[in-house]
Amino acid sequence: MDENLIRNDADIAKGVAWLCAHEPRFSYAYSQTGPLPLRLRDDGFEALLSAIVSQQISVAAARGIWAKLEAAGAIKAERILALELEELRGLGLSKQKAGYAKALAEHGIDFAALRRQRAEMVVRELTAVKGIGVWTAEIYAMFSLGRADVIAAGDLALQEATKVLFGLDARPTDKTLRKMAAAWSPWRAVAARLLFAYYHVIKDREGTT
Q1: CB neighbourhood size of 9 (10 A)
Q2: What pLDDT score was predicted for residue 46?
Q3: Which domain holds residue 95?
Q4: 18 Cβ contact partners less than 8 Å away, ≥ 6 residues apart
Q5: Does 4 map to a domain?
Q6: Is 92 within the bounds of a domain?
Q7: Which pLDDT value is given to residue 209?
Q8: Does position 2 have pLDDT exceeding 80, yes or no?
Q9: Distance CA 123, CA 126 (A)
Q10: Both 66 and 111 in a single domain?
Q11: Pick from 45, 40, 44, 41: nearest CA to 100
Q12: DSSP state of 5
C-alpha cells in the first residue's frame, strides 16, 4: 500500500499546509478553526459494531445500548454469533440492527489485512457487509485506519460546510462533492477534518445571532 496515512498531528499539519497552498478558501477556513483534531480511533470488529449501533439514533441512546451489549459480552463476534436475534433485540437493538450485527459477525472480516489495503478496497470490502453503507465505510477508513485520501461525501455536515465555504447556492450532492474533492487529493481526509471543524464554527456562529 503506497498511500498517505494520518498517524499524528504532524501528518495533519502537512495535509493542512498542502490544502491551504492549493485552495485559498481552505486557508480562510483554517484561520477560523485553528489546529484540527487528530480524531483517530481504534479499528476492528467493535468499531464497526459501534457504528451500526449508532446509526440514526442519538448519542445518548447509542451509549445506553452499547453499555447493555458490553455487559452481556455482545461486542465480540463470537458472542454475537452465539446469541439469537431476539436476545440481541432484548439488549436494545432493533430487529434490523440485530440482523446487521449478525451479518457483521458472520462475515469474518480480516481486520489485520484491511489495514494493508488501499482505501477504495477497504470501502468495497466493508460495504459488502449488510448494514454497512458507503458513509460508514469511508468514516472507518478515515478515522480508524488513518487513510489520508478518502472523504465521506455523503455526510450532511461536510456538504453544508462546503456550501458555505465555497459560496454555493445549495448543499452539494454526494456526487458533486466527490468531484470537488478530486482537487483535494491526496489529502481529502484532512479536507474532511477541516470541513467538519468549519461546520462547527458556522453552527456556533448561527447560535450567537
Answers
A1: 12
A2: 96
A3: 45-143
A4: 187, 190
A5: no
A6: yes
A7: 45
A8: no
A9: 5
A10: yes
A11: 45
A12: B
CATH number at residue 17: 1.10.1670.40
Residue 147 φ/ψ, nearest 5 degrees: -70, 135
Give the Cα-Cα-Cα angle 121, 19, 8 (nearest 5 degrees). 65
Q: How far apart are the first and last CA of the chain?
A: 48
Question: What is the reported pTM?
Answer: 0.90
Q: Summarize pLDDT for 72-99 with one digit per residue, the tens.
A: 999 999 999 999 999 999 999 999 999 9
Residue 2 included in any domain = no
Residue holding cell 487529493? Answer: 185
Kindly state the greatest CA–CA separation across the chain. Answer: 54
Separation CA 73–CA 197 (nearest Å): 35
Q: Under a CB-based contact definition with an 8 Å cutoff, are residues 45 and 76 in contact?
A: yes
In a domain, 3, yes or no: no
Q: 43-77 pLDDT, tens per residue?
A: 999 999 999 999 888 989 999 999 999 999 999 99
The 10s digit of each residue's pLDDT in 10-22 is: 999 999 999 999 9
Q: Are residues 30 and 22 in contact, defined by beta-carbon separation less than 8 angstroms?
A: no
**Cell numbers linked to 19:** 490544502
Quote the CA–CA distance of 88 and 75 in Å, as a whole number: 11
Q: Are residues 82 and 117 in the same domain?
A: yes
Q: Tell whether 133 and 153 lie within a shared domain.
A: no
For 183-196, what is each residue's pLDDT tens digit? 999 999 999 999 99
CATH number at residue 82: 1.10.340.30
Whether residues 53 and 32 fall in one domain: no
CA distance 199 to 205: 10
The Cα 4–Cα 99 span in angstroms is 35
